[in-house]
Design goal:
The protein has about 300 residues and is mainly alpha-helical. It contains 10 helices and 4 strands. It has helices spanning about 1-30, 35-60, 65-90, 100-115, 125-150, 165-195, 200-225, 230-255, 260-280, 290-310; strands at about 90-95, 120, 255, 290. The strands form 2 sheets. The chain has a two-stranded antiparallel ribbon. Helix 2 packs antiparallel against helix 3 and helix 5 (about 125-150) packs antiparallel against helix 8 (about 230-255).
Length: about 300
C-alpha cells in the first residue's frame, strides 16, 4: 500500500499545482495584474506549494527530517535533475541580468538555513525571519516587474474562464495539494520503515522528486514556448520559496528538529555546490547558454548523488 499512496500523492500534487497556476493566471487577467508579477508570485508559489503542504504535514506527523530533507532535496533536484533534463532537450539561453540578483538571494537563503539549523532546531524566531525576508524579496521583485511591465507597455490578455470558475480551480487545487501531501508523506514514511533507511534519505530522494514535478512541468512548458528565462527563473525562484516560504511557514507552525546531522555536513553543502555550478554554467550572462553537455553533467551529478545516498 505504501507504493500506492506514494504514486497517488505524486499524481494529485502534479495536477493540483497545475490547477492552482491555471486558476491564478485567469484571476490575474480579470484584475489586470501583470503576468510578470504573477510569474514571480503565483507561479513560484504554485510550483512550491507541494513542498509546503508536504513539509507542514511531515512536521505535524513527527518526521521533521522528512520536512527539511524534502526542501533541500527539492532544491538539489531543481538544478541537477530538472534543469539538467530541460537543457538536454534544448539548450537554455540565459540573457536576463536579473538572474544575478535572484541567484545571490538563493545562495543567501541557503547559507542562512545552514546557520539557523546549526544548533539542531529551526524554531519560531528563525521561521519569522525567513518570512520577513521572503516578504522583502517579493516586494522588491514585484516592484522591478511592474517597472518593466510599465516600460514595455504590457497588453493584458482576456481571461479564458469566468471568475467563479477560476476561484473554483484555486479551491480545488488547494484541497488536492492537501490530500496529495498527506498521501505522499504516508507512503514515504511507510517506505522508510520497510526499507530501513532514514527519513532524511526518503525526503531528499523520493519525496523531493515528487514535489519537484510541477517545476519540471513548468520549465518544460516554458521551453516549449521559447521563454528560456522562465526555465531558469522558475527554478531559482522556487528554490528561494522552498527555504523562506516552506520552511518559514513550517517552523512558525511547529519547530523543526534537525535530527540527522548529515543534512548539515553533506546535503546543504551539495545544494550550494549545484548552485555554484549553475552560476558557472550561465556565464557570461550577456550571452550565456546552458548547453546539452552542461545539462548532461548536471543530470549525471544528480544521479551520482542519489546513488551515494543509498549506498
Amino acid at each position: 500500500m505504501a507504493i500506492v499512496w506514494l504514486i497517488a500523492g505524486f499524481v494529485l500534487l502534479f495536477f493540483s499545482g497545475d490547477w492552482l497556476i491555471k486558476g491564478s493566471v485567469a484571476l490575474s487577467r480579470h484584475f489586470k495584474i501583470s503576468t510578470l508579477v504573477i510569474g514571480l508570485t503565483v507561479v513560484a508559489f504554485g510550483t512550491s506549494a507541494p513542498e509546503l503542504f508536504v513539509s507542514v504535514k511531515a512536521a505535524f506527523n513527527g518526521v521533521p527530517d522528512l520536512a527539511i530533507g524534502n526542501v533541500v532535496g527539492s532544491n538539489i533536484a531543481n538544478i541537477g535533475l530538472i534543469l539538467g533534463l530541460v537543457a538536454l532537450v534544448m539548450p537554455i539561453l540565459t540573457r536576463n541580468r536579473s538572474v544575478w540578483f535572484d541567484w545571490a538571494v538563493m545562495i543567501m537563503a541557503t547559507f542562512l538555513l545552514m546557520i539557523f539549523a546549526h544548533n539542531g532546531v529551526i524554531g519560531l524566531g528563525e521561521g519569522v525571519v525567513f518570512l520577513i525576508l521572503l516578504g522583502l524579496y517579493l516586494v522588491w521583485s514585484v516592484y522591478k516587474a511592474r517597472r518593466k511591465s510599465h516600460k514595455n507597455k504590457e497588453v493584458f490578455l482576456p481571461a479564458d474562464m469566468p471568475v467563479w470558475k477560476a476561484l473554483l480551480w484555486v479551491a480545488v487545487s488547494i484541497a488536492g495539494l492537501y490530500f496529495g501531501a498527506e498521501w505522499l508523506v504516508r507512503g514515504a514514511t511507510s517506505l522508510a520503515l520497510s526499507w530501513g533507511v532514514s527519513d532524511r534519505i526518503i525526503g531528499i530522494s523520493i519525496v523531493a522528486f515528487g514535489t519537484s514535478v510541477p517545476e519540471l512541468a513548468t520549465s518544460m512548458m516554458a521551453l516549449y514556448r521559447k521563454e528560456n528565462d522562465i526555465s531558469v527563473g522558475n527554478i531559482i525562484g522556487s528554490n528561494i520559496f522552498n527555504i523562506w516560504a516552506v520552511l518559514g511557514v513550517t517552523a512558525v507552525i511547529s519547530p523543526l528538529q534537525v535530527n540527522d546531522k548529515e543534512m548539515l555536513s553533506q546535503d546543504l553543502l551539495i545544494s550550494v555546490g549545484f548552485a555554484v555550478l549553475l552560476l558557472l554554467f550561465m556565464l557570461p550572462l550577456s550571452r550565456g547558454v546552458i548547453s546539452r553537455w552542461k545539462g548532461a553533467l548536471l543530470f549525471l551529478l544528480y544521479i551520482l548523488y542519489i546513488y551515494i545516498l543509498y549506498n
